[in-house]
Structures are given as C-alpha cells and as structure tokens.
Amino acid sequence: MLMINNHLTVNRVPLFYSGNDWRLLAEKLGCRMIQIDNWMNKESPTQAVLTHAMREDVKLGNFIKIVIDLERPDVVEAIQSFVGKTLEVFTLLGKI
Known about the structure:
This protein is mainly α. Helix content is 66%, strand content 0%. The chain has a single domain, classed as Orthogonal Bundle (Death Domain, Fas). The longest helix has 20 residues, at 73-92.
C-alpha cells in the first residue's frame, strides 16, 4: 500500500490545485469536501483516503477503474505490483 500511497501523494498546500492526486480520488470515491479538507491536515492524507476506501469496502476492480479514469497508469502499475506480490505470497503459503 505504501507504493500506492506514494504515487498519489502531493504537496498538501494546493495553491492553484488542478491535479489528479488523492483529493480527486477522494471525490471520485464519493467523499464529502469536509472529509477531504480534514484529511489535508493529516500526516498522510492519501493513507486516510485509502483507509476510507477499505472501510467502505470499495472493490478492487472499482478502485482500479477510478484510478484509470484519473489517468494515473503509475498507480495502476503500483496496484498490479502489490496484488501480484500478494498472490505470490498466498501461493507460497498454500492459500490459493
């Protein structure tokens, strides 16, 4: 998750913000502006958004579709890498 977090993180002071980072992801996930504003003050607002997505049980396929819509192939690649490594571990442990 750290790789995904790193890809979506930007400066927390959005002087003329127009990027496709954690704030737009939060909007696409249906978060309210007050939540987004509160997360801006957190040490890792991206982690707050990812935690929110997990708590809301956002399905991986839906999450990836949102990230693709954000035109963030770097994040898609980070997710694919994370999922691939996780599957390798489960396979080694005999869980799959």
